[in-house]
Amino acid sequence: VPSPPKVLRVALDTPLRRLFDYLPPEAPVPLAPGLRVRVPFGRGERVGVLIECAERSELPLARLKRVKCVLDTEPALSADAHALVLFAADYYQHPLGEVYAAALPARLRAGVALEASETHYRAGAPARTRLGPRQAALLAALAGAPLSREAIEARAPGSGPTLATLLKRGLIESLEVPAAARALPARPAAPGPALGHAQTSALEALTAALGRFAPFLLAGITGSGKTEVYLRLIACALAAGRQALVLVPEIALTPQTVERFATRLGVPIALLHSGLSDGERLAMWRAARCGAARVVIGTRSAVFASLPELGVIVVDEEHDSSYKQQEGARYSARDLAVLRARAAGVPVVLGSATPALETLQNVAEGRYLRLELPERAGGARSPTLATIDLRVHAMNGALATPAVLAMERHLGAGGQVLLYLNRRGFAPSLYCPGCAWIAPCPACDARLTVHLRERRLRCHHCGASGPLPFACPRCATELKPVGQGTERVEETLARVFPGVAVLRIDRDTVRGRDGFAAAFAKVRDGSARILLGTQMLAKGHDFPNVSLVVVLDADQGLFSTDFRASERLAQNIIQVAGRAGRADRPGEVLVQSACPAHPLLAKLVAQGYGAFASAALAERRHAGLPPFSHLALIAAEAKTASAPMAALTSLREQAGAVAPVRILGPAPAVLERKADRYRAQLLIESPERRPLKLALERIAQLIEATPGRSRVRLSLEVDPLEVG
Ligand code: ADP
Ligand code: ZN
Ligand code: ZN
Questions:
Q1: Cβ(341)–Cβ(313) under 8 Å?
Q2: Could you tell me the CA-to-CA distances from 10 to 49, 52, 80, 102, 381 in Å, in that order?
Q3: Which residue among 197, 222, 228 is best mutated to probe the pocket of ligand 1, counting the most ligand atoms within 8 A of its Cβ?
Q4: CA distances from 547 to 219, 284, 415, 578, 592 (A)
Q5: Quick check: 457 and 450 in contact, CB under 8 A?
Q6: How far apart are CA 169 and CA 161, in angstroms?
Q7: Considering only CA atoms, which of 94, 523, 38, 135 is closest in space to residue 330?
Q8: For the CA of 478, the nearest ligand
Q9: For ligand 1, atom 27, which residue shows the shortest CA distance?
């Protein structure tokens, strides 16, 4: 028997980048990394996770407090998930305790049992008084094995009050027994269509990789049958007794998605997403952990779910920005999924019609294997793309004449039309023709958006809002809304296409999962003829009857300070375009731009996403931008204008980066003042990961040690998605 360790090193949910040392409990108990422990902390208690057992501490042992109790006999996370948490904390330079907290359901952080239990009832002390007939019957029923409340109800309907009375009198006692974890119940599996040629060869490559680590890119336009391939691959893993983890973008986790997986796979499924209550989340998480759920479908944080028999990971729409956690531990679930697959020794499939440039570069360098689904399943043709030059055509509001004519043609032929404009509200600014005043947000360096129907001005950066003024506060001239938002386009449509049903889909008109479901039902049953919306439309929904897509303003993405803006624009255009067309009705896509000759846009329209991506990657290589270099962003935020720049300047001096690491900045953020806080940033750049990591370790320590942390808030983000 090994002697118990002298010191337990515990991760606690605090912003400090260190472990906390404790003495083991007096009574010897089995100890292993990953067990939850309850420890004294400050004046209270915390639940933490044991990370390592050690023989010594930096503190004298006499000063260490003792662990109150070890909560578990087994680690909460499966070994690969535990390893992933450790990796993520290290890679993203984030406190381990906070990353661990993000990986565990809230109730487990509060200390509830790892495994589900259920209250059962049995007969207690014999009765000394006379019982009523119902009471006697209930006691007789509980004389044998303990029963759950449901089982009691099934045998003796309406016995709830009797049970309560007898419990109170001590004639019945309750006990907690292990319960089967609750996942979504399974139905018999339904067969799918016979696979096409490309699907078959993709599936063969994927199934051949089951049982070992292998990362794949499954590239194929919307409707090319990627999901069919996932389903077959998962079915193979299930048949081999393994579990599957499927990550989807936040917005794509709809009842239809779940329904499709459930009917085809015929196994219990656990869902993990941000809309669950703590209790539901725990139940789903437990079902995955105990193996009752064979498939987990979830959004980004599900990458940490405990799956003891993990056999395959799928990341659908891998380019989607919702895989990036933007607050707290800023991780990329897509990237972590690949690392988890490596830790677990399983294949991982990244699927997309518009792969991220990073992913394409991983393919180019031979790290990922590319599988291609070149055609649409069922023989549908891909849509054709063309630009409309906004400088040469008459406009009806946001619609150029060729767009209006095309809409008439498609509507006349019975098709639906989809208009894409990534700007909600009526107009992005309110302008005074008399003195050129533009309504500013009082709290941000930004203009207020006009919401005409509500008669309000709203800030889309901080949420501030106020009544819509009629006249200029400076010169009393009547104010004019300038620019186009979805609400204004809706008004134009009512004028240009009277009597044609328009459905606007954006955050102002559609809320929550149910709102989506209702809106998409209207699209599918054809009661809406023109769909108009923001990038909500670009994500994970098929519109088989849409035959024309008009991208109203491509220029937003072409001239941004953020080097990723053109990539996002191209992805959105192709994703929206992918919703259009089917076998008997090929889709047409029109892209409105005042700059149709822009090289990246021209490439995209003439040759498609692949050609665009090659050109964009060449630009990135030339400019030394990711994926050809690695970035981290240090953001500073404070109530006063000078504090963030001062804090970053001093950080930069102390960090003293050495080549090949370069520190760029500090510079004020593009939107310097947001919600009354001033913001600045520092970019740390390196062509290689290792020196970047070493520099970041030092910077993270400096940040932690910066005095007046409360005055200037500093944060560190590795591989930032939004820069600028
Ligand atoms: P993706 O995930 O690439 O968007 P899906 O797998 O959802 O594509 O396929 C699009 C549509 O085509 C679905 O309705 C699907 O059932 C159907 N489909 C996929 N593969 C086939 C096939 N081999 N034969 C017939 N229909 C198919
Ligand atoms: Zn004015
Ligand atoms: Zn604002």
A1: yes
A2: 5, 7, 19, 16, 57
A3: 228
A4: 23, 40, 5, 10, 17
A5: yes
A6: 13
A7: 94
A8: 2
A9: 377
**Secondary structure (DSSP) of 538-581:** GSS---TTEEEEEES--GGGTS-SSTTHHHHHHHHHHHHHTTS-
From the CA of 373, how far away is ligand 1's center (Å)?
11
d(CA 575, CA 551): 11
Beta bridge partners of 589: 385, 549
Alpha carbon distance 143, 138 (integer Å): 9
Can the peptide bond before residue 627 be classed as cis, meaning omega within 30 degrees of 0? Answer: yes
The ligand whose atoms approach the alpha carbon of 437 most closely is: 2
C-alpha 155: how far from its chain's center?
A: 45
Q: Tell me the C-alpha to C-alpha distance, in Å, between residue 106 and each of 18, 35, 200, 416, 418.
A: 22, 16, 42, 44, 41
Q: What are the pocket residues of ligand 1 if the criterion is a CB atom closer than 6 Å to any ligand atom? A: 193-196, 199, 220, 222-228, 377-378
Q: Can you tell me which atom of ligand 1 is nearest the CA of 224?
A: 3
Whole-number pLDDT of residue 380: 61
Return the bridge partners of 505, or none: 533
Residue 272 near residue 253 (C-beta atoms within 8 A): no
Q: Give the closest residue (by CA) to ligand 1 atom 21.
A: 377
In 3-state terms the chain splits into helix, strand, coil percentages (rounded to 5) of 35, 25, 40
- Between strands 384-389 and 588-593, the pairing is parallel
- Which residue among 197, 227, 297 is best mutated to probe the pocket of ligand 1, counting the most ligand atoms within 8 A of its Cβ? 227
Q: Within the chain, how many helices (H) and strands (E) appear?
A: 20, 32
Given a cut of 50, the residues of the chain with pLDDT beneath it are: none
Identify the bridge partners of residue 297 per DSSP, sorted by sequence position.
246, 271
Backbone region of residue 691 per phi and psi (left: phi > 0; alpha: psi in -120 to 50; beta: other values): alpha
d(CA 479, ligand 2 centre) in Å: 8
Among all chains, which residue has been given the structure tokens 């895989």?
A: 323
Of the candidates 356, 526, 580, 219, the residue with the CA atom closest to the CA atom of residue 590: 580
Sign of CA dihedral 437, 439, 443, 444: negative
- Separation of CA 664 and ligand 3 centre (Å): 27
- 671 alpha carbon to ligand 3 midpoint, in Å? 10
State residue 79's pLDDT score.
93
Residue whose Cα lies nearest atom 19 of ligand 1: it is 225
Q: For 278-289, what is each residue's pLDDT tens digit?
A: 999 999 999 999
Cβ(397)–Cβ(488) below 8 Å = yes
And the tokens for 156?
A: 């003796």
* Residue 633 to residue 484: CA distance in whole angstroms: 33
Q: How far is CA 436 from CA 465, 476, 479, 587, in A?
A: 21, 12, 10, 43
Q: What residues are neighbours of ligand 2 (ion), with CB under 5 Å?
A: 432, 434-435, 437, 472, 474-475, 477
pLDDT score of 689 = 93
